[in-house]
Design a protein that fits this description.
CATH topology of the largest domain: Molybdenum Cofactor Biosythetic Enzyme, Chain A
CATH class of the largest domain: Alpha Beta
Shape: elongated
Bound molecules: adenosine monophosphate, magnesium ion
CATH superfamily of the largest domain: MoaB/Mog-like domain
Length: 401
Amino acid sequence: MLDVADALAEILARVRPLAPGAARLGPGALGRVLADDVRADQDSPPFPKSLRDGYAVRSADCSLPNRELRVTSEVAAGVVPTKAVAPGECARIFTGAPMPDGADAVVMQEDTQPAGDGAVRITDDRVKPGQWVFARGTEMRAGDVVLAAGAALTPAALGVLAGLGLVEAKLHPAPRVFVLPTGNELVEPGHPLKPGQIRNSNGPMLAAQVQRAGGVATHRGIGPDTLPELLKLVGDELDGTDVLLVAGGVSVGKYDLVPAVLAELGVATHVRQVRMKPGKPLLFGTRGGTLVFGLPGNPVSAAVCFELFVRPALRVLAGHPDPGPTTVTLPLAEPIAEANDRPTYRPAKLEVGPTGYAVRPRPWHGAPDLRGLAAADALLVLPAGEARLDPGSLAQVVLIN
Ligand code: AMP
Ligand code: MG
């Protein structure tokens, strides 16, 4: 049985970023990853511009208090100034407007008074050169790498690309993930339960985890615990997807048919069982370019395996240089006393206190207790053995939001 870190290494050793292609930019590209550096084709701002509504002045003219200047022109945003500011003159200017020649500073409207006869009195006697001016090229210079290959598109990055005039960029595609929950006892939500049945929580949960991790999930119903049907269902999907997530049926029971099905279909198994709780039955294999995860059926086991193993794989496929998961060390908000035979990943919630973040375990009754995970945004990692921890003692925490 592999440790969590070794299992993750086995998986990631077999994952490469998906081949990038030209993609349209827009909110749909949020979170996707640039495959090439993006350079500025010109300075930004392309001209020195005013940061305030006020007056464009020659700073040297304003060294004495209450200096009066003649207003000889007006420049609004979007207009090209045609008249230079000569000594003793100024130009009415507005935020975003290009600075006229001759002027080297802006005095805010609030620091002026009308002086009659087309003049203005400058009440600010400490006007510095460059004041309230966003100099040409402050944000970027032509040729600068503004966003590097491997950068994920945040809303601000999408704004920067729009600022460069781009409508397309070379992006890694979002991984396609087929989600197949299995189990004869499962019924889709919206349908009544017969005795012995339970509803399919894993399908909707995993599809949402895929989406949160930047993938595109497809989910076409439930697989039964019968060999021929499962063979056909899995076989039909293996080639048309980047990742296949089969949930349930991966353990060692009589009705756990997934390992046999995958073997029959020529999937090479690289990970079978991981020393962790929940999630021990995890299976990982590959066929051609398709990654196959067999996730345990208990919903919290499936969710934890997703965060620890599937999400990092999806991040690599999507081109992220850092696969994660993000692990931090935080103080406990309450004591813990429990013994575990394997490293345990427990639903927990981050809290913001006066001295920073702390982590509080959620009430939780084990692998089938999905309710205990629903309000969690972290997994508290407890090493194998006896854990007796006082509030404030430091613990490892995997962030899952
Ligand atoms: P298995 O891994 O198939 O042995 O399933 C382990 C446990 O998880 C059993 O109690 C199943 O009924 C339950 N389970 C399996 N699949 C799902 C699912 N999609 N949603 C909710 N519970 C499930
Ligand atoms: Mg089952």
